[in-house]
Amino acid sequence: SDNTKEGFLSRMALNDNKAGMEGLDRDKINKIIMETSKGSRFYENELKKEQQVNQRIEKMMLQKAQITEQQLKKAQAQVERVALELERSRDLTRVIVHVDMDAFYAAVEMRDCPELKDKPMAVGSMSMLSTSNYHARKFGVRAAMPGFIAKKLCPNLVIVPPNFDKYRAVSDEIREIFADYDPHFQPVSLDEAYLDFTDHLEKRQSWPEIMFYYDSIAPFTLLGIAPNMMLAKVCSDKNKPNGQYVLPSTREAVMDFVQALPVRKVSGIGKVSEKMLNALGISSCSHLAQQMALLSLLFSETSWHHFMQVSLGLGSTYIPRHEERKSMSTERTFKELSKVEEQLSLCRELCEDLAEDMKKEDLKGKTVTLKLKNVNFEVKTRALTLQYAVATADEIFAVAKDLLKMEIENESPQPLRLRLMGN
Ligand code: DCP
Ligand code: MG
């Protein structure tokens, strides 16, 4: 239908939510993307995903139409209670830094081959790109785009095959520097980490001047500094490339910052959530705050709690210590499991096993991960990090169940056909 086609276009369209991609001729770029990709596996796959999202939105809109004034009122009261509770947990005493390298793989390749510096280049292959340098971004060439499309957008694009050993080695060097500032820093990927600067800043107060010449983090100016991890991540993207953004540690500054923030800029709110929220008229975090009652009726508890934290500018202020970051898991393989009730009861069983193991070791965990392998052997993991540590089967299941339901919904109306589940 027309509807599908339009929706499809929106998914395939250039995603310019990336540094270095402001002010591009979207219409021209989108036309080339559509023409080039038609009929490819990439296109078919995107089309399928798009249709699934559209179905989810249709379902959600039907659900919304049935909400009564009274339900909404009740939800509003609950939302206000939760907001008060969350507000009490606000901690503005930490200085959290998020570091993210500019065009990481591409930057390493340009370092080793300086001729590439002035050319549009990308790392990857004709079937998929991992990243592109800032010259290439001006043509609409970006990560997660097939190289054959990128070549149409930018015929002079140089595509360099990836060399992961090299990126890992550079990452190790960077991490050594991070450790000088926060020995407990949390790496997220090869080019990204969270650091708690609070203790370092205190020590710095008593540094003799000469020490500042040895400040090894100075060349890494791609920082975001804020009172919590959620905000720091947004901040590090603000002045890319090669810039910093500091968000002051006051409630007022945080709330102002969040008001204007598009939901898509928040880590954890991806393409799909953005589209669902847009369908409800929500594009910025201030809309999020206004619509919390409705959201609490349409989304899972974990999702709307996350939305609420975002709308209040709240995030984690505590970077878990390495030794606390132990993880524990259990999994089971079977021939095929496609019935929702059976999947949920297996999930419950796994949570019980896990809780028992954790009890033996006296462990608690803040991240619950669900691992699924379908009958085509495709593996997916879905994880959720909570504000508080959990340990009992009930607590773990409450989260795992939501993650599983989300996957079931993603697949629907087709059943989710599993051959392995773990958590
Ligand atoms: N990466 C990838 N596939 C993606 C996204 C990223 O393989 N879809 C890899 C290549 C990137 C690295 O991870 O260089 C870091 O990811 P970022 O999202 O931080 O992207 P860049 O560092 O390349 O660019 P930016 O300057 O926007 O941070
Ligand atoms: Mg990066």
Set down the secondary structure blueprint:
Blueprint: H1 2-12, H2 26-37, H3 41-65, H4 69-88, E1 96-100, H5 104-112, E2 121-124, E3 129-132, H6 134-137, H7 147-153, E4 158-160, H8 164-181, E5 186-189, E6 192-196, H9 198-204, E7 223-226, H10 229-236, E8 245-246, H11 251-259, H12 271-279, H13 285-290, H14 292-298, H15 301-311, E9 331-337, H16 340-361, E10 365-374, E11 379-390, H17 393-411, E12 418-422
Parallel strand pairs: 2-4, 7-8
Antiparallel strand pairs: 1-6, 1-7, 2-3, 5-6, 9-12, 10-11, 10-12
Helix pairs in contact: 1-3, 2-7, 3-12, 4-14, 16-17
Bound molecules: 2'-deoxycytidine-5'-triphosphate and magnesium ion.
Name the CATH superfamily assignment of the largest domain: Reverse transcriptase/Diguanylate cyclase domain
Strand content: 15-25%
Number of structural units classed as domains: 5
Oligomer: single chain
Low-confidence stretches: 1-7
Mean pLDDT: 90
The coarse silhouette is globular
Q: Write the H/E string, N to C.
A: HHHHEHEEHHEHEEHEHEHHHHHEHEEHE
CATH class of the largest domain: Alpha Beta
- Report the major sheet: 5 strands, mixed
Number of DSSP helices?
Answer: 17
Spatial strand arrangement across the major sheet: 5-6-1-7-8
Ends distance? 39 Å
Bound molecules: 2'-deoxycytidine-5'-triphosphate, magnesium ion
Number of strands: 12
Secondary-structure-derived class: alpha+beta
Helix content: 40-55%
> Could you say what the CATH topology of the largest domain is called?
Alpha-Beta Plaits
The Rg value, from CA coordinates, equals 23 Å
CATH architecture of the largest domain: 2-Layer Sandwich
Catalytic activity: DNA(n) + a 2'-deoxyribonucleoside 5'-triphosphate = DNA(n+1) + diphosphate
Keywords: Coiled coil, DNA damage, DNA repair, DNA replication, DNA synthesis, DNA-directed DNA polymerase, Magnesium, Metal-binding, Nucleotidyltransferase, Repeat, Schiff base, Transferase
GO biological process, one term: error-prone translesion synthesis
Domain UmuC: 96-270
